[in-house]
Amino acid sequence: MAARPSAKPVHNATDELGRALTVQELSFREEMNLAEAAGPSGEIRRWMVSATLAACVRAVDGVPCPFPSNRKMILAQADLVGSEGIKAVVEVLAPELPADDEGEADAAATDRQTAKN
Question: Looking at 6-10, 11-15, 39-43, which range is the least confident one?
Fold first, then answer.
């Protein structure tokens, strides 16, 4: 069976650095692939929350971001997106969450995303 493109809406955001981000929630299959790519690090909730939010960035300034397929690519995506990009992702995907505690907002956004799937 061929993989289907994600039916999740695509959002545009601008981070604190002025970068244009293309953001899309992960499909359930992408979440599974990301967890597999994370390996043992995937057992650490905070690590997976950050990895998931970084993987939601599909492009930066119009340059596509390949979906991370291993731990090294996940870390490279996290470096590219940075905390400024993660804040923009949270604002787009979970705007009703309080922004004062980034860790809790990130975790709640991922919990909400997981519950939707």
Answer: 6-10
Q: Are 37 and 71 in contact (CB under 8 A)?
A: yes
The rounded distance, in Å, linking the Cα atoms of 30 and 33 is 5
SS (H, E, C) 21-76: EEEECCCHHHHHHHHHHHHHHHHCHHHHHHHHHHHCEEEECCEECCCCCCHHHHHH
Its domain, for residue 46, covers: 10-111
CA distance 88 to 105: 12
Domain count of the chain? 1
Say if 5 falls within a structural domain. no
Q: Provide the strand spans (E) within 1-117.
A: 10-14, 20-24, 57-60, 63-64
- In angstroms, rounded to a whole number, what is the distance separating the alpha carbons of residues 54 and 68? 10
Per-residue model confidence (pLDDT) at position 27: 92
- pLDDT above 60: residue 117: no
Bridge partner list, 59: 22, 64
